[in-house]
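Feature request disguised as a bug report, sorry. It would help if multi-protein outputs had a clear separator. Right now it looks like this:
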Amino acid sequence: MLRPAKSPQTYLPGNSVSKPASFKSRSAPAYRRLHDKACFQRAFPRSKSELADAGSALQQIATSISAGPKAVSRRLTDSGIAGTLVKYRFSYDVAMWLAGKVPGAVEIDWQEIQDFEPLDELLRQVQEPCEDEFFDSGGVSTREWMDVARAGTGRSSFDWLMSELRGKRPPAVFRQLYNAADIPLVWNLGDCPYSRSTNVFPTHRVAIRNADLRRRPRQARNEIRKPLAGITRLTRERGARLIDVAVASLATRHRETNHFDFANPDEVYLADVGKGIAIAVFGLLPAHRYPLECTMGYLILANGVPIGYGGSSVLFRQINTGINIFDEYRRSETAFLWVQVMRVYHALVGCTRYIANPYQLGEGNSEALQSGAFWFYYRLGYRPVEAGVRRFALEEQAKMRKTPGYRSPVAVLRKLASCDMHLTLPGARQREYFAEEWLPASSGLATRELGLAGGRSRSEGASRVVRKLQESLGIRSLATWTPDERRGMKVIAPFIAALDLSKWSRSELALTRKLLRAKGGKYELGFARLMAGHDRLRESLELACRRSAPGNS
């Protein structure tokens, strides 16, 4: 979660990590501190020699831990350090990623399984009919059965299971069965490239940070609107490599996000914002895109080292997003980095309104509450949307100015975090804001449209809605559309079919035709840009939602 940026004088550690030759056996906490310092210096080196020392130290730490007492290594479980273990119940998609990227390094943590029935149900889906009696006989345990079933494969239980699940149809069913089994795994990081010690995206050059890190811009709005020199869409190969870095950066920290798990290797953008800092933005694979919103995750890299991440939902000209900086980098230029993330999204999509939800500010989130996340956003220009909370924030700000060292009590921060905060750029208009409360209402409109379409099945009803919308928009045929484009059309069609298009202009109808096809296009960014320019769609959808609200006819 967010923490307020500290003064620049406290950003960079005062001392470099030790030379490798000076390493001695240390306690687990000492190894953690040394590892964090080396990671920080690798991301923000003040000299080439410091960069070399940090790299050598990270290698030596792993070697020392492996050669040291087992008790120390055990206490470093889940640290993400090379040579240690990560224990976690990963989702189906990350588990499948692990099976493909680090074969032989992951095993089922049998001792942590309390209830075998969900795993047994999953295994029944991969058995041959001739095996049913043996499996259900009661004379063999789940683990023993798997040992017999994989005897000739040379694979671990985990690798064998994932190989059996790979390619099973329909994938959504097996994803659900695997996730329901909640299988505990143990990942031996060893010297693989995905530990926190080794997970780096290759860069052409390293920027030396020979001065204090950058402060929060005086005028964040001006910085956000500043043009970027260029944003590159990576090749599929480079995009896939960066997705691996993103997934691993979370997996070693017991985190996951759909933004990375379902990222599209064909749609990865990389923006250089100076001094070795790059912002990567990931589009989603067509099959995993959201109906109305364009959801795009991002990863912050410092000299190729992942130091933070977040997700975003782009809708018309607004974007709902937040930032997470990994613990060891929280003494860096957090506020500056967050402004650069907003700048990149503005350059990509043209959004003029940024939204922070109460959870990001501390509602139901003790870490954000304790860190004073509300003031982090406030100092950048975000303001509460509710007038009462805005007045209360001004009163609290006056106390802070009057009393040096004063910090808002938790009870006050909780009250401040009770509503959304918005940052608006010059030119943003209130009437362009599509309140998030209308998203479930929009979904209700789509459900009604599908229900009225009739048909023998929901799928047939959806096809009828598509045909109806084709006729309304003058789309003669979808024969030239790709399968992904037709799928995208089917996903978004019920929302638009629920609207009255009779008074729309020709240009608005033409824009809608482009929008429908772009939903399933190779790059979803095109869809986000078209949505940002479709005022009639926004206005009509909001009007329809208001009319469908309880109490309205």
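(second protein starts here, but nothing in the output says so)
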Amino acid sequence: MGAIETNHWHDANQQYLMRALGLVREALERHGAGTGRSVAGDTPPSAEPGVTEKMSDQAAEVFPTTSALEVLVKTLGLSPFERDVLLLCAGVELDSSFAALCAKQQGDPLRPYPTFSLALAALPGPHWSALTPAAPLRYWRLIEVGGSGSALTVSPLRIDERILHYLTGINHLDERLTGFVEPVAVAAGLVPSHRSLAERIAVTWSRAVGTRPLPAVQLCGAEESTQRAIAAMACAMLGLNLFGMPAPGIPLETRERTALIRLWERESALSASALLLECREPESSDLLREHAIERMIEETRGTLILSGRGRRQAEGRVMITFDVSKAGTGEQRTLWQCGLGRTAQSLNGATERLAAQFNLNTSAIRTVCAEALSRQTDGATRSSNDLEKTLWDACRIQSRPRLDDLAQRIESVATWEDLVLPEPQKQILHEIAIHVRQRGKVYEVWGFAAKGSRGLGISALFTGASGTGKTMAAEVLANELRLDLYHVDLSQVVSKYIGETEKNLRRVFEAAEGGGAILLFDEADALFGKRSEVKDSHDRYANIEVSYLLQRMESYRGLAILTTNLKEALDHAFLRRIRFVVPFPFPDAAQRAEIWKRIFPAGTPVESMAIDQLARLNVAGGNIRNIALHAAFLAAHSQKPVRMEHLLSAARNEYAKLEKPLTEAEIGGWV
């Protein structure tokens, strides 16, 4: 409704309400004058209409046919007598004459309030059932019965504040629901696949009109914001408001939960609203919480949507399930182009590269575009290359929050110049980078993805002794590809509890999907070892963990790097599905000399460095770095450049750590 129409409705609704209150007041006055009925219950409920039912046809034409009072009566199923009781309670709040009239009719100046006794005596069509907790007045908590310890019929009656405001045309969320539910706004511009899903939900409910309760719709998937957007759009198509309720907020105590459900159902009926129950995956299994969710689903009779990862069952309610996926690569490309507008044309294919690398939802893409264009307007980005870099880095930042809680992000500063490896190994690493860069073209444009999602994940296995450069190689790739590198802590992933390891792995992979981050599973043999022969239930579940991992890696959009010191410990089925295997050999003397040449930063003062002598130390690159770093601290303390004497002391410390003898052949002639 426009502003003028809204104002007209409010004016008409107010007149209608005042007219209805006037008729109730007249009934009270007639009762006091002895001209009305004075014996409660002497007329059957259906034999005589309520006083507000007696409005003339002429009066009805003046007032709106959809007044708040009429909507409430019809929606909540009040009888004419119950409607008049409600108006009697509203009159005390809205008309100062009602209180004095109630006191007068009850013969007691200390009783300036309505009671059931007064209503039964003064209002037409009385019925005792209106007093029961199951009748609308008390079931929907339209009135409050006060006077603890007093008889029910003489206890004070008071209209509920939310209902009073509703009758006057003021519609707002019941304050008792604040903290439990919050409005969900309709997102602009759903992608076609998501809008189609919203339309299917709307059609499902439209076809079920008259069914009580309506089938509950559950949206399954990992993307919470997308589920909310689809649910809001489906409700908007049917003229419904949508409110979201996080499942952890459901009261565990039965009485509190029942009261919450009752309040929500009343709110839902009066404000034409649906409830989105957001059942996100809990950190740990909680049977009481699960029971509360089940009862909420089964006992809520209004329009209900569930969002979450998996499917739920309810004995007393039909559940219709829709799977929700992120926007496809083509849809994301369109979102990038729309978000960037004309600027997209000058980016020379950047939108294709962004859509291929990052798997962001609609909201995230729009946020990135707005931020990048704002920086361009401010002059922070001057060229198309600067803008693409800004977009790329913003995408990485958008994807970090979910993954930062699950794995450790490594700042990648190593470059190809820092990596000392035989040429064949370097070539494989360059090919890994090519696969990551060109996967969008090969999978989407050339059609390999249409053949199936299996085998599309890019995975690499780095094998070799500790300190041979496996982690550094991962850093080099992350730096080259300008992607985030995350080290997955296996101690946080592997669980002794059945099913927990798979759940932890799933959370890691799904969190990493959005930004196509590089996942580094260090010492992977601890998790990805050979599948054992099944001898008991623990062996069987251990094999399920490995099988799940194999499946998940095959569908992961990003690059997963596994490192191990023991290649032979890995499952052969696992090795068959690894796209790249890179052996990291123990460095020979020539390679160690190269490492020593590059180990000290340009700003480190060195003096009399004998590279050939240092190369005789039979240790890997990681140990060389430890020796160089230790020597630098010793030199800094002595306020001298790094010399061979510092390196000798550092070498002895490192060898002691390794429980390895430092031979004369290695350090002879150093000092």
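Even a blank line would do. Unrelated, but nice: The CA atoms of residues 103 and 112 lie 4 Å apart.
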